Amino acid sequence: NAGVMQNPRHLVRRRGQEARLRCSPMKGHSHVYWYRQLPEEGLKFMVYLQKENIIDESGMPKERFSAEFPKEGPSILRIQQVVRGDSAAYFCASLRGAGAPGANVLTFGAGSRLTVL
Amino acid sequence: QKEVEQDPGPLSVPEGAIVSLNCTYSNSAFQYFMWYRQYSRKGPELLMYTYSSGNKEDGRFTAQVDKSSKYISLFIRDSQPSDSATYLCAMSARMGGNEKLTFGTGTRLTIIP
């Protein structure tokens, strides 16, 4: 049973390019969270998705950032026209779902480290 | 005021010492309390999970929750160099049928051999 899979693990982009980060949740998990972690800082919530639905995007910047979790395939975090300040580690986490045992325990992926030159 | 406050450290202690890590919070809606451990350049992994006031022990680790004071702690006994990591507290509240987790900033711990 593979854990939460994120790719790419490392991504380098120049300013103005697009970055796409992918996350496959654990088997049986239907809820996906994205977090951003800047150096020396904690995890900052970005967005919470269920299949085909955005549940909470209160942590997402209003511009350039978008996320999706389609019916088939991984969740995608997309950053358009990247700037240097977007350089960070982006972590995806999944959980089984509300009401299930251990429903509110997140399992994290290893993260995708974005560097913007 | 942040919902969750955690001393960022860094904290360095000699091997074998008892370590105390702490978080305070302001949101009374938090019901579940967790500690995650994050090694350098890795994702956080769940260490302890509790939902009631009191102590929960797992090997060398003890999680303590005091809801009346809005204070949680993680104690590590007989600390080992392999315990060197960043420890993040996390708290969960049910909001409109969905779980919302809030993390502390993390405390960087180094155990000196």
Give the proportion of residues in helices of chain A.
Answer: under 10%
Dominant shape of chain B: globular
The largest chain-to-chain contact, stated as pair and per-chain residue counts, equals: A-B, 27 and 27 residues
**What is the C-alpha radius of gyration of chain A, as a whole number of Å?**
14 Å
Helix tally of chain A? 0
Low-confidence stretches of chain B: none
Class based on secondary structure composition and strand pairing of chain B: mainly beta
Report how far the terminal alpha carbons of chain A are from each other: 36 Å
Q: State the end-to-end CA separation of chain B.
A: 37 Å
Mean pLDDT of chain A: 90
Tell me the total number of β-strands of chain B: 11
Q: Oligomer, anyone?
A: heterodimer
> Judging from the principal axes of the Cα atoms, what is the shape of chain A?
globular
Strand-pairing-aware structural class of chain A: mainly beta
Radius of gyration of chain B: 14 Å
Largest sheet of chain B: 6 strands, mixed
Order of helices and strands of chain B: EEEEEEEEEEE
Specify the biggest β-sheet of chain A: 7 strands, mixed
What is the count of DSSP helices of chain B, taking H or I runs of 4+ residues?
A: 0
> Quick one: how many beta strands of chain A?
11
- Report the uncertain regions of chain A: none
Could you give a short description of this structure?
The complex is a heterodimer of chains A (117) and B (113). With 117 residues, chain A is an all-beta fold. Helices cover 0% and strands 48% of the residues of chain A.
